[in-house]
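= Paired protein data =
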Amino acid sequence: MGINVRIKLLRPGASIPVRVTGGSSGYDITSGSIKPVVVPTGGYAVVPTGFALEIPQGFEAQIRPRSGLAARYGIGILNSPGTIDSDYRGEVLVILFNIGKEKFVVRQGERIAQMVFSGCEDVTFEVTESLSDSQRGEGGLGHTGR
C-alpha cells in the first residue's frame, strides 16, 4: 500500500526525500539552500528544501525533527510537527530552532528533518450540550504527574 506524491525539484542540488531503512516511517529531508543557513544560538532560521509537493487529497505530510540533531546540537523544528497540506504547492520550508550553545550552520545537502505522510479524515462537528463521562474527565496539562 502507498500513495503517489508528485515532487518538483526547484533548483540544482535539491534532493528527493529518502527513506533510509525499510522500517523508517519518515523520509529524510535535506537542505536545498544554495548558500549556508545559520541558525543562531537561541534563535531560528527558515531552511528551504528546494522542492515542492503535490500530495493527494485526504493526506498530509508532517515535518518532524531529527533526533540526532536534537541530541547532538540542540536543533529542533519550531512548529513541530509542521504540516504540508494537500493543496499547498509552494516550496517546503523547515523552521529550525537552536537551543544549543553554538550557532548551527546548515549546508546544502545536509539532512535537516524527516517527513511522514498521514491520512486526514473529513470530520463533521456535532454541537451538543453534554459529553459522555470518561475515566480521565477534564484532567489535562500534566494531571498524571511526572
